[in-house]
Amino acid sequence: MKSTTIARNYAEALLLAAEAQDGKGGSVEQYGRLMDAVAGALEADERIAVALDSPRVAKATKAALLERALADVTPPEFVRFLQAVVRRGRQGLLGEIAQQYQALVDAKLDRVHAGVVLVEEPDARLEKQIVERLTAALGKDVRAHFRADRGIIGGVVVRVGDRVYDGSLKRRLAVLRRKMLTGE
Q1: Domain boundaries, the chain
Q2: Would you identify the CATH topology of the domain 3-107?
Q3: Which of the four CATH numbers 3.30.420, 3.90.1150, 3.30.70, 3.40.30 does domain 111-182 have?
Q4: pTM over 0.85
Q5: How confident is the model at residue 138 (pLDDT cuts 50, 70, 90)?
Q6: Three-state SS letters, the chain
C-alpha cells in the first residue's frame, strides 16, 4: 500500500474523531492545527523524530512520552490517535497524515487555497478585496497565500490547484509582442 493511501486512511480516521468531538467546539480545525504542530515539531527537532523512529525505544515508552508531552495541551482523543499511529509503526507518515488531513478538511469545508502573486506585498484592504473576488468567482471559500514578485511587472497571477490565471502585465506584453511579430 502506498504511503499516500496509508496517510489518507489515518487522516480520515482522525477527521472522524474530530467530527465526533466537534460538539465541543471547533475540533475539526483544531485537530488540523495540532497535526501541523506535531509534524512541524518532528521536522524542526530531529531528536523527536529519532526517538519516535528508533526501534530501541519501546512502543509503550513512545506512547507514554506522547501522553506526557501532549496531555495538557491537546484533547485525549488526539493523543490516543498519535499513540495508535506510533503503535503501528507509522510515525514516519505524520507529516503526510497532516497534509492529507488538511486536504480532507478543505474538501469538507468547501475551501480552496490560492497562490496570489503581486508586484508588491498587498495591504490588508487589498488582500480582503482579492479574497472576496476569488471567493465570488470560484464559489468556494478561498484561503489566499500572497507573495511578491517584481518580475510580473504589474497585474496579478493566481494559482488554484493546477489552474493558473495569469493577468500579469508581463504576460500581456508577451502576447502583444507575439501578435506584432506574427502580424495577427
Answers
A1: 3-107, 111-182
A2: Peroxidase; domain 1 (1.10.520)
A3: 3.40.30
A4: no
A5: very high
A6: CCHHHHHHHHHHHHHHHHHHHHHHCCHHHHHHHHHHHHHHHHHHCHHHHHHHHCCCCCHHHHHHHHHHHHCCCCCHHHHHHHHHHHHCCCHHHHHHHHHHHHHHHHHHCCEEEEEEEECCCCCHHHHHHHHHHHHHHHCCEEEEEEEECHHHCCEEEEEECCEEEEEEHHHHHHHHHHHHHHCC
